[in-house]
UniProtKB/TrEMBL annotation:
Chain segments annotated as coiled-coil in the UniProt record: 119-170
All copies of domain Multidrug resistance protein MdtA-like C-terminal permuted SH3, residue ranges: 301-357
Record flagged with keyword Transcription regulation: no
Signal peptide extent: 1-24
Source taxonomy: Bacteria, Pseudomonadati, Pseudomonadota, Betaproteobacteria, Burkholderiales
Origin species: Caldimonas aquatica
UniProt name for this protein: Efflux RND transporter periplasmic adaptor subunit
Length: 365
């Protein structure tokens, strides 16, 4: 009897014991991880944010440029020939009309001499035809020859005259051709590059000497379209060139080219430097431009803290707080960095709030 009762109540006792053991055990690792993840995600109200603000008056951004010569010429060969005389080297100062390079012109000189001899022969034939024509006219006046004979003499005279003119033109062309074998400086300047040596074969179009005028220099800087659209004639710019005594110099003239580079989507800004600066073409230059006009907030650049920018593969963005207070990742296009802030060309509006801690914003669900 007692044995039967024990077997009847044993399932109840086992269930009670199992429940007690389960209550005594610690939470499982899965539930603990879930609770921990929920504890890490901070509410959006606790995220540190910053307001997208327009650039302050007087805030300036730097854009990298290159020093160029306003007048720079690449002198190339017009005729083929070996370089037989090289009179300059890089860095030499030359005067206008100074001989820089001579090519082997013996063949051209011989052709010019042959043309000169042909001119002499043509002139002699012209003189003979002229005298014959004068005699024929006198005979015609005395009725010794016919009208046809006079006309033949006149035709021979005109043909000889035309032949002499053609020979003279050919001789002048040969002389001009021989002048191509001597390369002279078109203006006073400094030799920047000499890519040939004695004995090299010069071909038409091959550069021989690069010359520039150091009296007229400028800085070329590519500007993003957003910055170029805010450029005006009264925009104040300053130029910083390493090595100059002055920290910054003001340009004497500025020109924004209308064409946009399709590969970089930039416009070239040319700033003419004051005369007398010891700069060379190709030198690095930094151009400082104001980000926004005085009192013009619609044209002012937008700035966000650099730490708020998120870069994931090819995506560049920031977390922007929605009206409900939730951080939303938004793609942006950035401009220049100014201190601890960065210019935003598109993607956000003034007054919006961006999250400073991108990792914390990504955990908010």
């Amino acid at each position: 009897m007692s044995s039967v009762a024990f077997r009847f109540f044993s399932p109840v006792l086992v269930a009670m014991a199992t429940a007690g053991v389960a209550a005594a055990q610690p939470p499982s690792s899965t539930s603990a991880a879930r609770d921990g993840a929920a504890g890490e995600a901070r509410p959006s109200s606790a995220l540190a944010t910053a307001v997208v603000a327009a650039a302050r008056d007087g805030t300036r951004a730097a854009y990298e440029g290159t020093v160029q010569a306003v007048r720079q010429t690449v002198l190339a060969a017009q005729v083929p020939g070996a370089v037989v005389d090289l009179r300059v080297k890089p860095g030499d100062a030359v005067e206008a009309g100074q001989v820089l390079v001579r090519l082997d012109a013996r063949e051209a000189q011989q052709a010019a001499a042959a043309s000169a001899a042909q001119v002499q022969a043509a002139r002699a034939a012209q003189e003979a035809a002229t005298r014959e024509y004068e005699r024929q006219k006198q005979l015609f006046e005395k009725r010794y020859i016919s009208q046809a004979a006079l006309e033949r003499a006149e035709a021979q005279y005109k043909a000889a005259q035309a032949q002499a003119a053609a020979m003279m033109a050919s001789a002048q062309a040969a002389t001009t051709q021989s002048g191509y074998y001597v390369v002279k400086a078109p203006y006073a300047g400094v030799i920047a590059e000499v890519p040939v040596v004695l004995g090299d074969m010069a071909m038409p179009g091959r550069p021989l000497v690069t010359l520039y005028d150091p009296a007229r220099m400028r800085v070329s800087v590519p500007l993003p379209q957003g910055v170029a659209s805010r450029w005006s004639a009264d925009t104040t710019a300053s130029i910083e060139i390493p090595g100059l005594p002055a920290e910054r110099v003001a340009p004497v003239a500025a020109e924004l080219l209308p064409a946009v580079d399709p590969s970089t989507h930039t416009q070239e800004l040319r700033l003419t430097l004051p005369a007398g600066l010891a700069v060379r073409p190709g030198s690095f230059a930094r151009v400082w431009l104001p980000l926004g006009a005085q009192g013009d907030r619609s044209a002012a650049a937008l700035l966000v803290p650099a730490q708020a920018v998120v870069r994931r593969a090819e995506l560049t963005g920031v977390y922007v707080l929605s009206p409900e207070g939730r951080p939303l990742l938004r793609q942006v296009r950035l401009g220049r960095r100014i201190g601890d802030q960065v210019e935003v060309l598109s993607g956000v509006s003034a007054g919006e709030r961006v999250v400073l801690d991108a990792q914390a914003a990504s955990r908010v669900r």
